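Why run this: before we spend reagent on co-expression, it is cheaper to look at a predicted model of the complex and decide which construct boundaries make sense. The entries below are exactly what would go into the expression plan.
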Amino acid sequence: MKMIGNKNRNGITFVEVMIAFLILGLLFLPVFFFLTGAVRDTEKFYTETVAISRAKFIMDTMMFQIPWWAIKDGNPCGFTSYNMVTKVTVAAVGSLLKKAVPKMFDEGCKTANPEEFKGDGLYTCRKGFKYRARVKVVDLDYDSTSANPVMFSIPIPGSPNKHEFQINQLVSKRDDKFNLIKKIIVQLKWSNIKGKDPEQDPLAKSLFLVAFKSDLEG
Amino acid sequence: MNRNGIAIVVVLFFAFSIAIILFFMLQSNTNLAFQNKQTLYQMQAYYLAHSGMQHAKLQLRLLPKETYEFFSKKGTGNPYADIDSSNYPPTAMGVFSNKNSGYDLFKADKCPDDKFPYGGKYFVDTLELLGSHDSMKMVQDGYKIVIKAQIDGGRGKIFSEELAEEMIVSRYTGGIK
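The model came back. Tokens follow.
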């Protein structure tokens, strides 16, 4: 309390106000950085969530919807409605592929043959982020894995021996291969910069799903 | 009443409140990142479990008679114990490794056929014969298969998934219902 000319002046001094502003300024600087960072993080989590859900959609469709024989090996893999075993184009599978594959991969999955697609494409989400999806399929067939093949074995009770079979003993050659299991690898690659193709972004993110699809139809 | 310095006290109180709010916002962001990672690892384990189930069904289709004979001859234990992805090089995904981080399907030299982008495995945990219909025209056996799958997330983090299914198999044709 200061007495100036017999007047009582209560209040905050100029120095106090300046110190208060300084503290507030120092306080709001990290808040500002945090809020701009939070907006960036929210978009980062959004793109990651979209990538996860697209990878799941692709893998679900390949594991549980598309027939085993309709998936061709390669990087990117192929999809066809022509059954190499029966030598017939299956119309129902053709219409499934025509609807499902463009939804799975979007731009770039079509080929010159309307009955065939490839497992590769570029998808742009509603917010404008771009995602590349690619699927690699490897046939774990007898010839390519004959050094260390997948075996099918069952122990014989009361005996040290087993019933043991190799793939070529259990299935006939189809599409020029003895094959029963396909390895499927799905990759989703995306950029956290709106409108940027992840292939052009050195900081692009990726996620993977791996599964093995067995021939339960033959 | 002496109110000198009250502004600083008020500002410090305000600063403390903001710091608390910031702390919780930061924590919620960290949680979101953690949940996305968990979801992905769990999904990877889910597909490995389904891979194991398809592998077991394939063997049941191919060897229905041999599988039944194991149980009819009083075999004990798990007759499908060999269905373990880590037993065979083509399906052996191995464990978590920093070498996997460079895996990229968009670069031909970064995705060799024998490599995987992450580590994990599936195996048949149990196979039970639930019952048989011997007197019917179609000889059928009921089985219960339990598959377990694991994903190695690194730093000792293992994500597991279990899948159980009951099915009826034609003993001589391998048809599955």
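The first strand of chain A starts at residue 2 and ends at 4. Helices of chain A lie at 14-65, 91-105, 167-170. Bring this page to Monday's planning discussion.
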